[in-house]
Amino acid sequence: MNKKRLLLAEDDELLASLLSFRLNKGGYDVLHVPDGKRVKEELSEDLPDIIVSDIMMPYFSGIELIDYVRNELSSKIPIIIISSAGNEENVLSAFELGANDFISKPVSPSELIVRVARELNKT
Amino acid sequence: MLITAPKIHTDLLWDLSLLFIGIAVVYFFAIFLFKKRLTKLSKKTKKIKQRVSPMISEFIFLEEDASKDEKSSYVNLKVEIRELIKGKFYRKVVTEILLDLRKDVSGVAQKRLFELYKDLGLHKESYKKLKSLRWEAISQGIRELTQMQVAESYGFVTKFINDKRPTIRKQAEIAVVTLKHEGIDYFLDTTKHRISEWQQLKLLEVLGGQKDFQPPSFKMWLTSKNKYVVLFALRLIKHYDQNDASTSIIELVKHKNNRIKREAIACIKLFHITHALETLQTVFWNCTVDTKIAILDAIGNLGSEEEVAFLRLIDNKEPSFSVRSKALAAINMISPEAVLPTEGILDTEKVEIPKDIKEKKKEVMEDHNTLDEYIEPPINEPAPEEAADEHLLPQVEQASQGDETDIIPNEVETTTDIISNVAIEQVATDEDHTTKDPIPIIEPMKKGDLPKDVFQSNKNKNVTNSEEALAPEKTTDKDETLSKREITPVFSVDFLPLIVEEKGIGVIPDEKEMVLDHMQLEVLFDEVEIQNRVNERADLKDTVIRFDVTEADMHFIPIVVATQDEEVVQHDRLTIDGPGKSENLNEIAVVYEEIEVVVKTEVTVPTDPLDINVVYEELAITSSRNDYETVISDTTVVYEEITVIPTVEGESTTPSEIIELDPISLDVIYEEIQVSVREEEKTIDSDMESIAFAMTVIYEEIKGVDLGVALSSDPQTVLDLETMEVSYQEIEEAVASEVDSVEEEIEEQQLPNWLLEEIASPAKASSNKEPIQMEGPDWDAKTFKMTHEINYFLQYLPEPKMYENDLNNTMQLLDDIDFFGDEREIPLLEELMQKEEKEVTQSRIKDIMARFQGNNKSNTDGESETDISAQANDVPYSIFEEFFRHCDTESKLILLGEIAPVGDEKELYFLEQLLDDPEPRIRDKASSALAQLKERLGSVTLPPKKENNTPRAASVPQKTDEEYEQLLDEMEIAPPKESDIFDIGFELLDEGQSSDGPKEVKEDSEDTTPYNSRLNAFKKSRKKRPNDDG
């Protein structure tokens, strides 16, 4: 059975490492990308099954990433946004642009696994 | 005089230049090295992080059901990371990683992160930082311990609460509140320093983030000597809605500190403490502007009409503009729109209205005069000039132009009540167009009642209204609409109050003068609808105003009934009459604390006694056995509470009927009923199966609860239960028929075997008792059912086990040994065993011995209290043990530290016990404390450690009498002389034989063996015990 490919866009290396480890353990093939620029490069090459992205990233923010995926790539792959607490405006913008779900920091890795699985089940 | 440049030697200049160049080179080189070092460190850190972070992930996400390889990998990683963190730099980096991750993860991952931090021993590094002399190191240590939730550090952090260095102090405050729920108590109790606003916010945030936090009662700190604590406590009280400290809060309004004062006022406002209004008014004049505004805001929220005068006073006397404005705002909060805007309002007298509009108005007014008398005067927009000159709001205009003294009465009526009075009055005034009868008027207020400003503002209000009405654009644009509205019948605008001039009463005014503009008037009644006013017009000729108000219209008014039960007041109509008194509905002050609606009903109560529900709260049956020949000689049945509730069949009530009282139909609560069954005669059959009982039912207290039953006046129907004597002579065998159904119920309840057996043979059980017969006035056979039921249950009580007299005493002794004794009784029991021949006694002794020796399985599970106490007697008692039960780990560690210098031998055993403690730190500490204590006390041998399941007596070899004597000889100890004390001849009396009668010495008394002496002494003591019922 093929593993679902997950693109993790997170600039915090430690958190990314932790989440990658957990997601890998949860049965996903995780590709970690530390900034928005590289996310675009990766997406232009191949689309993953799901994207988990932080909102605040170097070069391109998570909001721009959603816009890029939905409008330029015209893709409907599920996108889950990771946002800091008290960043509701960005979350609303993300939802308006087509984000599927969001999870706020501090992140519970187990919760993230559940949300990813739920979004993938929807598709 | 010429000024010449100083001569500097060229060499010196070169030297200086070289020096500066050298310094610059060194400086840049140092910077270069420093930067390089930083870069190197950064790279190293990054490298370590990259290496360590997967390990940490592994540690955090290791699951219990992980595979063997994963577990093996986990162990290897742990060993590796432990090796790594031996280096200081590595330790620092790993701590940083964990602290960073703590912020980013939550849930189980975060919890494991905390555990890992402690597991790796990184918290020890933080503890070391606490001992540092540098404030930043201490602060960092506290922060790390706080963030990683090291609750054990609580005791170490608390000492920094009052540190003189503010950074450390603040960090410690947050730590104390974070680490333990009771930390906030400690902090508020202890802190002596200022708590900044920011710190208060931080602490509040910490408290808000704590799970399952039960806030203490913060009113305790309202009495603190630290004003910042008081302030913070007030804020916490407000935050947690703890409105149980109103008196203290009111007292704090008088506080010198303005912030505390304002916070107290905010609490008063929040908790709606209306009885603080007086205090607020008292302290008002000595407050700052901000506090005054806060007070006025509170008064505006909590106040009533009573506070308006105070607010008016402020408006007059207060120099501060802000306070005056707030006072007026407060008046409007209490009484909406009591004060209207006064600043920048145009004078309506000077407004020019176009001529055509003025003419139209005139026409309209003429049309209005031709209207039917039942039609309300039109809503007129008077011509501006004319209105201004002649007719515009006559009473207002006249008042404004005339002497102020004259206008006071009408102008004062600006409050809701007064206006409403006028409103109702105007209904009568309105009738003056036709009746021209004088109409009573409300007594006007005196000028002195309210300050001058009030009049002025009211005057302006009226002017404002008139201005609005006269706005040119309105009159021109909506001309047609207005004409239509002018002829609107009276019914549609009934709710509008009208204003009439006092002077005009009784005098027929000019028609034009009577024109009133409804648009200028305030609407006071939102809900009150007055109907059928047309029909009442004739009544207005009199001085009585009557309103026919239907019940539906007045449903919002509480129903008024007399407090007497016999009076039933019905309100079909609400009639208000009385000249000049209570015409105004709003003047009726109806304040009913409680409205009672009494409905008299007579309820038919069935007289069938079978419908009585008997609730036995408690049924205690005590039997005494003086000897085996007396069987249940005195049985006392105590009913704690018996409630007899009659079952009402349906809801069939016959209100008109008065039903005769059937005593059984009463709801009777028997506070206590004692049914004592006494032996009627001493004629006991040999087989002890037929005993005659006489049952006396004593009703301690009987309460009749009225269920709405009208009691019959016939005294014969009243059952005097106090005097009722019930004697049981016969038990109906019919009881047996009900056994089957009851049996099932009892079996379901898993009753003991003896009871089940008894149930299985009801006939036998019933035959054990004599039939019962009941006697008493008006006693019906059916009413005995209750008693039968009681009897029925009584018969299932266990049959007493009867022993012979001697055997009985022996068994009793064994029972007592069993209950009070321990393994030390084993020798005695063995001796007893040898003496006793009866199988039942031997069996009992064996049981007891088995229990004492720990062979009994039930006793191996848990020691009896006597065993424990016996063991406890041998164990040296340590005071520290008691403390240990009630303190946390940190406190335990502190206590252990104290044991070494102050403890003695008693603590040795206790410390040894602690070596098995589950907490490793306690084990370590106990071990070191034990070593220190031993060293201090020298060579002290510990008391032998007991095995839980090994009774000491069992290990002690039992010695025979011969061996005992031999031992005494060996030890050259003379056996004690036989004391007279133990040489007592025991006399057992037969039942019924008094002590004065002839004494018959039993054989037992002659037996002088130690065993028998003890046994007989025991028997004798039991004999002498009063009220001995086993």
Q: What is the topological layout?
A:
The complex is a heterodimer of chains A (123) and B (1030).
Chain A: E1 4-9, H1 13-25, E2 28-33, H2 36-45, E3 50-54, H3 62-72, E4 79-83, H4 88-97, E5 101-104, H5 109-122
Parallel strand pairs in A: 1-2, 1-3, 3-4, 4-5
Chain B: H1 10-60, H2 68-84, H3 88-104, H4 108-119, H5 122-130, H6 135-147, H7 154-157, H8 166-179, H9 183-190, H10 197-209, H11 227-239, H12 246-252, H13 258-271, H14 277-284, H15 289-302, H16 308-317, H17 321-334, H18 355-370, H19 384-391, H20 394-401, H21 404-412, H22 416-431, H23 452-469, H24 472-477, H25 479-486, E1 613-616, E2 619-622, E3 634-639, E4 642-645, E5 667-679, E6 693-705, H26 739-748, H27 753-760, H28 762-767, H29 785-794, H30 805-820, H31 826-835, H32 839-852, H33 857-861, H34 865-874, H35 879-885, H36 889-902, H37 905-914, H38 920-937, H39 952-955, H40 961-970, H41 1010-1024
Helix pairs in contact in B: 1-2, 1-3, 3-4, 5-6, 6-8, 8-9, 8-10, 11-13, 12-13, 13-15, 14-15, 15-17, 16-17, 20-21, 30-32, 31-32, 36-38, 37-38
